[in-house]
Amino acid sequence: MANEVVKANEQEVAEYGTGANLGEILAEELDGLTPSFERIRIPAGGGLAYEVPGDDPDSPDSVKEFKAVILYHHPINCYYKEEYTGGNNPPDCGSMDGHIGIEAETGVVKNCAECEFNKFGSGKNGAKACKQKRRIYLLREGEALPTLLSLPTGSLGEFSKYVMRLLSKGKKTNGVVTKFTLKKAQNSGGINYSQAVFAVDRDLTDAEFANIKVLSEQVKAMATKVVELDEE
Question: Which residues, 6+ apart, have CB-to-CB distance to 143 below 8 Å?
Answer without folding.
Answer: 9, 12
